Amino acid sequence: FLTFKKAIQNDCWLLLEDVDHSPVDSLSVLIDLLETACVKTSTSTFYLKPNFRLFLTMRFKLNLFLKTAN
């Protein structure tokens, strides 16, 4: 969470890989961030700055895609 907080505060780009394998509590923070443009902790609230960018990746199973495409 510290890296995430620093990226928000410093107006950086952040890449999160394999988000589909993330714990549910981490995903809930991401959903709140996307819906409200801020992250709330027990002691403070961090608002997104204009140049903050969030990139998410997920794993892709090719064989599953091929089965549904046919």
Write structural notes for this entry.
- The protein is 41% helix and 20% strand.
- It is built from 3 helices and 4 strands.
- A two-stranded parallel ribbon has the order 1-4.
Radius of gyration: 15 Å
Number of helices: 3
Q: What is the topology, as strand order, of the major beta sheet?
A: 1-4
Kindly, what is the distance between the CA atoms of the first and last residues, rounded to a whole number of angstroms?
Answer: 41 Å
Please tally the β strands and state the result. 4
Contiguous low-pLDDT stretches (5 residues minimum) are none
Strand content is: 15-25%
The coarse silhouette is elongated
The chain-level structural class is: alpha+beta
Largest sheet: 2 strands, parallel
Portion of residues within helices: 40-55%
Mean pLDDT: 83
Q: Summed up, what is this model?
A:
The protein is of the alpha+beta class and 70 residues long.
Please write out the topology.
Elements (H helix, E strand, L loop, with lengths): L1 H8 L3 E4 L7 H13 L1 E3 L4 E3 L5 E4 L5 H8 L1
Parallel strand pairs: 1-4
Antiparallel strand pairs: 2-3
List keywords for this structure.
single chain; 20% strand; two-stranded antiparallel sheet; alpha+beta; 70 residues
